Amino acid sequence: GLSPEAYRRRHEISVSGSGVPPPFTKFEDTGFPSELLKEVHQAGFSSPTPIQAQSWPIAMQGRDIVAIAKTGSGKTLGYLLPGFMHLKQRRNNTQMGPTVLVLSPTRELATQIQDEAVKFGRSSRISCTCLYGGAPKGPQLKELDRGVDIVVATPGRLNDILETRRISLNQVSYLVLDEADRMLDMGFEPQIRKIVKEVPTRRQTLMYTATWPKEVRKIAADLLSNAVQVNIGNAD
Ligand code: ADP
Ligand code: MG
To answer: From the record, which residues define motif Q motif (predicted)?
Structure first.
C-alpha cells in the first residue's frame, strides 16, 4: 500500500490541522462493522473515495471537519458512515429526539441523503426521516413522533417545525451541514443559525461544501471548533 503522504499526493488531498490521522485507503481499515462492510461491497464499491478515505478517520476521532470537495466525490457516505458509528456508541432514546441531524439545501438532495441512510443503515437498524417544504407537515410529524436516530432536513421546514415545538434538538450530538455553500446561496443562513442555537454546544460538527468563499468560512468559524480542513483536488 501507499504511505499516507503518497496516497494524499496521488489523490490530491490536502489537510490542515494538527495530528491529522492517516487516510483509510481500504474499507477494511475503517473498523466498520461487518454487516456495514457487506452493504458497501454489495453496492459495488471497491474502495473509499478520497474524501471518504481522509474524512472518515478524522470524523471517527470525534473531531469537527470542513470538507471541500466537488460534486460526485462521495461526500454523503463521508459523513453518514461515521454518523452510524457515532450512533452505535451513544444511542439515545429516539423518543427524545434525533442524535444525528443533517441540514441539506433542497428536498431532492435531502431525499437522496435519506435514501442512502436507509440503504446503508438498515443492517445496523438505524432509522432516518426527512423534513422538507412543499409537502404537508402532518406525515412528517407522524414519522418524527415514531422516534428516529437521524433527521435530514431543509433549514426552512425544520425551522417551521421547531417553532411548533414538535421536535427537540437537545439530543443532537452529530450535526452535518451538507452543501453549506449552496444553503448560504439560497439565503438559509438565518434559519441555520436559529437551528444550531437549539443544538447543544457539546457536539461534533461537520461541514461539507463544494466551494470555500468567505461567507462559508465565516459560518464555519462560528459553528465549528478546532476543525480539521480536508481539501480534495482543486475544489477551491
Ligand atoms: P457528493 O455528495 O460528493 O456529490 P455523493 O455522496 O452523492 O457525492 O456520491 C456520488 C455517487 O457515488 C453516489 O451514487 C454514491 O452512491 C457513489 N459512491 C459513494 N461512495 C462510493 C465509493 N466508495 N465507491 C464508489 N461509488 C461511491
Ligand atoms: Mg452531496
So the answer is: 25-53
Instruction: Give 116 Cα–ligand 1 centroid separation in angstroms.
Output: 10
ipTM of the prediction greater than 0.95, yes or no: yes
Please list every protein residue whose CB sits less than 6 Å from any atom of ligand 1.
45, 48-49, 52, 69, 71-77
DSSP letter string, 186-202: TT-HHHHHHHHHTS-SS
pTM, 2 dp: 0.97
Q: Which atom of ligand 1 is nearest to the CA of 70?
A: 3
- Give the number of whichever ligand sits closest to the CA of residue 46: 1
Each residue's pLDDT tens digit, 102-127: 999 999 999 999 999 999 999 999 99
User: Separation of 117 CA from ligand 1 center, angstroms?
Assistant: 13
- From the list 21, 126, 26, the residue with the least C-alpha distance to 81 is 126
The residues that bridge with 153 in the sheet, in sequence order, are 103, 131
- Least distant ligand from the CA of 67: 1
CB of 189 closer than 8 Å to CB of 157: no
CA atoms of 199 and 209, how far apart (whole Å): 21
The cell for 180 is 453549506
How much distance in Å is there from the Cα of 137 to the middle of ligand 1? 30
pLDDT confidence tier of residue 18, bands split at 50, 70 and 90 = confident
Q: Does domain 4-232 have CATH number 1.10.3720.10?
A: no
Strand order of the β-sheet with 13-16 is 13-16, 228-232, 65-68, 204-209, 174-177, 100-103, 150-153, 128-131
